[in-house]
Write a structure and sequence with these properties.
about 180 residues, 2 domains, Alpha-Beta Plaits, alpha+beta, 2 helices, extended
């Protein structure tokens, strides 16, 4: 945001959002500065009143009060920077912080973590398996996240386990994290 200019005034608001005093100048000290805040727990909200070329406009400062210049199309914030670095490159897969994660869907509700580790361990070292349970029933929700150290191991697991049966149900296997398409 821009800093205050010498011809700007600030007006403090009390906790209910009301200005202290009747008009803008009544809440200012003789030097033209706002009075110090009595509560140190929360900073006061302030308004800037600009006097430029005879026009008066109020600018609200603080969270949730952004000007249209700070926003992109449709009132949304401008897009964020995309970080480069280690990624999946081709294939659209993205590496998580600790390894390559694949998502296994279509798991039987009575599937056990040990069985998933054994089946996917045939393709490489399984670093971690996350199987969420339904709180009501205590059974598996039907999916698991399996983490591998190396991308080639995860790719082999996707190719080897896609469409295979576990506990009599066909499982689907794909990357858990995908990179955004170029140009977006």
């Amino acid at each position: 945001m821009s800093s205050l200019r010498h011809d700007d005034e600030e007006v403090d608001f009390d906790e209910e959002g009301e200005r202290g005093g009747g008009d803008i100048t009544s809440s200012l000290h003789p030097e033209g500065h706002p009075p110090p805040s009595s509560s140190s727990s929360s900073p006061p909200r302030a308004l800037k009143k600009r006097k430029s070329e005879g026009q008066t406009s109020l600018h609200v400062k603080g969270r949730g009060h952004r000007s249209q210049e700070d926003r992109g199309e449709g009132g949304r914030p401008h897009s964020f920077e995309v970080l480069g670095g280690e990624g999946g490159g081709e294939g659209g897969a993205a590496k998580s912080i600790e390894g390559w994660v694949i998502m296994v869907t279509g798991l039987h509700e009575e599937a056990q973590e040990d069985e998933v580790v054994d089946r996917f361990g045939e393709f490489g070292e399984v670093r971690n398996v996350q199987m969420n349970l339904d709180r009501r029933t205590g059974f598996v929700k039907g999916y698991a996240l399996v983490e591998f150290t190396l991308r080639k191991e995860a790719e082999a697991a996707i190719e080897g386990m896609e469409g295979e049966e576990m506990y009599g149900k066909e499982v689907r296997v794909d990357w858990a994290f995908m990179q955004e398409a170029p140009g977006r």
